[in-house]
Amino acid sequence: MSKTRNHIEFTRKKGETGETLTLAQSQTISEAMCLRIEQALQDFHANKQAILDAGARRGKKNNPIDNFYIPKLEFLQSVVHAIRLNGCAIQWSADTTEHAHIEVVKAPSSSSNNQRYEPQVCRYLDRRDKLRNFDLFTAIREMRIDFRAIHSATITDEEEQEEGDEGEENGEVVMDTTSELLSTIMPMTTFQSAKSNRIVDYFYKASLYERGVLEGPVPYRTFSCSKNVVAHLSRDASSKRLHIDEVASIFKIPDLRPAIADYVSLINKESNPRQTNSRGYHIKGITGRRVSPPGCPLPYSKLEVWHKVRIQSTAYQYPHEILEAVTLNAYPPSNKHPFGYFDSAIINVDESEEWPRSGLQGHSVVDIRIIFRIVGETPSTVSPDITGRFLAYVQRFEVLNQPQSLGSAIRGPYPEPITGMYKLKQSQRTDNTIMGGILPLNQIRSLVDLVPQMGEKARRSLTTHNSHSTSTEFRLNKYFDKELYLALSS
């Protein structure tokens, strides 16, 4: 077997192992997924010799091992059979029991005097329960939730003082679920144990803003991006009222001014009721040549800049389940990070396609370089789609065409047959500058991980701080998390 062929087979086997383990850990597994697990496992065993030939299986002192005598690997043969009999593997995980053991045994006993554990643990749990109940009661009381009403309601102090009984009716917030109640009282709770493992529900907070129940600075810092995605920014910007050219200099983005000019021109030219929705004008993609020249005049001169945004989404298999929010960073270059500290994300460019069910169809991959808002300095410059929205300067990647399958003559924007991952290339204009542009922040859908293509031999100059910015080709890592895997593999 040639060196290249051996490398290809080795890469395939690694992917098949990851496929088996990722699919087996799904919360819901269909018969089709069981067949995929069986096929991936069968392919692995049929070709696992490639891993041994590559010398990748090693033991103590980094010595090569020429066999796969691994008991846990043998147990994988029974995974699909067990799933068909007993349900998905996550149901027979020991994690739940272990977590309960930590909470009701290990943690209480660690605060004892190591004498007569049982009564001390019981007393500890008793007191924690009282504190938890007291914290819950005071939180509900402070939020003025009245359980005697037909629906739970929250009434602000100002409404109560100014409107009296009428204000109570107008200020009602209908809460139909326990999750809504917990989301409402969560900001008021102070007892740490009472809110452990509790996920902040930005979806509910965004709905309160949309219904006019909550008040805050406009544009609202928590807002809906789609049915399955919501974004949250801190109340105060990281940098307030910086000049556009100053921001361009800080972030080392020389075409920021012309990019903003192109966005403003597009909004003024094309925005009409047929092209907008409740979330505002939707950018169809970062493409084409730069129309505005450097130094072009703008009716705006100041920007507010944020260095990070929180993105929250729902689970792929259980859309009603809210996931923990993740942070997307967009920090400027610094001594520690000479190219900046920023993340990559998936954005929506086709409103007819809905993440995550659509996969990458109707979406693009970008680097988030700047998160900002244009400041309207006079009433004549205020515009809902320009000054009334949070924007992002992004740099786009294009999907490289791949064969539809191994040996196929059909090529297109498909995942690479060997790894099952999309191959990306940083988009460039004809003058060899990176293709960047402005789009509304609410078009962001998900945080992603890009793996730089090192070639046959990685450059010695590569570090964790420069490997992304000095590479031009990447793989979209579908194993970054299970939700992304399901979205990109469906």
TrEMBL record:
Domain DUF6830 as annotated: residue spans: 201-366
The protein, known as: DUF6830 domain-containing protein
Organism: Psilocybe cubensis
